[in-house]
Prior knowledge:
By secondary structure, the chain is an alpha/beta fold. It has two domains: 130 residues, Rossmann fold (3-Layer(aba) Sandwich), CATH 3.40.50.2300; 131 residues, Rossmann fold (3-Layer(aba) Sandwich). Helices cover 41% and strands 16% of the residues. The protein is built from twelve helices and twelve strands. It has a six-stranded parallel sheet with strand order 2-1-3-4-5-11, with helices on both faces. A six-stranded mixed sheet has the order 7-6-8-9-10-12, sandwiched between helices. α4 links the parallel β1 and β2. α4 crosses α12. The radius of gyration is 24 Å and the shape is elongated. The N terminus is likely disordered.
Amino acid sequence: MLPFHGGQRQDVIFLTIKEIAQLAGVSVATVSRTINHQGKASPEVQKRVWDIMKKYDYVPNATGRSLRTTRTGMVLVLLPLLSNSFYSPIVEGIDHAARQQGYNIIVATIQMDRATEDRYLSLVRMRQVDGLISLSSTLSTAEIQAFGQQHPFVIACECPQDARISCVEIDNYKAGYDAATSLIRRGHKRIAMINFDYVSLSPPLREKGFRKALKDAGITPDESLILHTEQFDIESGAASCEKLLSLPEPPTAVFCYSDPLAIGMIHALAAHGLHAGKDMEIIGFDNTDVAGVFLPGITSVAQPTFDIGVTAFGLLREKMLDLNSTPKRVTLPHTIVYRDTAKEPK
């Protein structure tokens, strides 16, 4: 999964038309006429109004005041990209819950691009959709909280720790701890981790849990066994495996941030005549569809993806009914699905 990424812009403020008028030193009616291009304000006043709107990213509601009191029946779901199959069952869960409440969903990708995300956020500001569920965002924590205070907005999977916003995720710290503990109970002492080097929440939490499990078992982490990659794809997994195999004493087990990294490990081992699950045990993450059909089958930490989607819509529904309701942070349980690459401890 691709995690939350804190954006660089920390100063975004979401203003009302009344506040725009106050900043411009004009009446609300003047701002309204400027927005609607009615031409009754002087060019200087119009420029002042537009400059303020541009500065504060104000987007006028082109569909009129009626949308303030009537719902559109549409919910926007933002994904970082489409290529990661991890997101599919989450979207299915959102869609299932939404349809039960008479809503339809619009699914879009932001490609982790701030300008693209801003364009989709405009749909929420203009009330062309009733709410937003984001599975990954370029917004900073401050921006997430500010946007959530003014619009129905929920985060799924990568929940910023300091933002008062409704969100749903697993306990990534415990997931990392459990994966490492499983390998330790199998008798491994030289355990590596391939982590995702990204400014986000889940990678450091999983690594922190991983390190704590080693410490609790009396194992001092070998820093040469903890690698960070710029991507969490197959190629990065293979490259990481080559680095680990080149060590004087390679690891006997590896915990990977994602299933694609685990697949890359398996391919690289095979190229050296080694076998995952026999010569080196491997645990992936997310339990994507490929984990169950790949040979050898990939042991993986599973997130309850469908339930994450259902829960995310439930949280959003609460906010759509009452924007001022208390934000809720929901943590769902994870499991380890054991297959060929790492057996279940006895």
